[in-house]
Amino acid sequence: MRMKSIIETVASEMNTVLSQVREEEALLFSQKLQSAKRIFVTGEGRSGLMGKAFAMRMMHGGFNVYVIGETITPSIEADDLLIAISGSGSTGAIYQFASKAKEAGADVLLVTTNKESKIGSISDGTLVIPAATKYRRPEEPETIQPLGNQFDQAVHLVLDAIIIGTLESSKDQPSFAEMTKRHANLE
Ligand SMILES: O=C([C@H](O)CO)[C@H](O)[C@H](O)COP(=O)(O)O
Questions:
Q1: Is the confidence metric ipTM above 0.90 for this complex?
Q2: SIS domain: from which residue to which, for each copy (predicted)?
């Protein structure tokens, strides 16, 4: 089995995708995180899993953050921020959530490969991850990986990097010990 070469190709694909993420979009994303009253995160399937990982680390960082679909998630309001993660930018449920969030007066930021997508067209900003999705549009990069792996992996790494940058620039930057203390102790 050629496992080593697969691992190296996945790492190389990530390097290519990550190097094309625009710094100004990442900075805007970070500013929006800092100015939002509360942060809500949504995404279907693996995009949603990346969203949950992001929300957890934001909670450790001291942010007021919720995941859409959880029973304790409250209603969204003006001054709140919805982070929608959708590789295609066209998933129906995420479009509905983004529309309703806009109606409630919240800001919507889309993490996607496609700025011109349906969800992109109603969002207040986009963070473009120029990766392959399950739709294999002609403009998407080559990949050896199935469906939207390349997008999901890149989202995870880019959002983790944005959290680090956001916490570093915060005047109340939490220590490693403070972040660890917030981690669930019933596990
Ligand atoms: O779970 C997914 C699929 O496995 C592709 O990797 C997607 O994240 C899910 O289908 C949602 O699609 P997008 O909204 O286009 O991210």
A1: yes
A2: 29-172
Place of tokens 């509905």: 96
Nearest CA to ligand 1 atom 1: 45
CA distance 34 to 107: 13
pLDDT in tens, 80-136: 999 999 999 999 999 999 999 999 999 999 999 999 999 999 999 999 999 999 999
Residue 187 lies in a domain: no
Look at residue 110 and tell me if it is in a domain: yes
Using CA positions, which residue lies closest to atom 14 of ligand 1? 86
Task: Name the DSSP class of 173.
Answer: P
As for ligand 1, residues whose beta carbon falls within 6 Å of it are 44-47, 86-88, 91, 94, 133-134, 147-148, 152
Total domain count for the chain? 1
- Full domain range(s) for residue 66: 16-170
The per-residue pLDDT for range 23-58, each reduced to its tens digit, is: 999 999 999 999 999 999 999 999 999 999 999 999
Task: Establish if 145 belongs to a structural domain.
Answer: yes
Residue 169 makes CB contacts below 8 A (sequence gap 6+) with: 30, 34
For a mutational test of ligand 1's pocket, the pick from 44, 135, 136, i.e. the residue with the most ligand atoms closer than 8 A to its C-beta, is: 44
CATH number, position 138: 3.40.50.10490
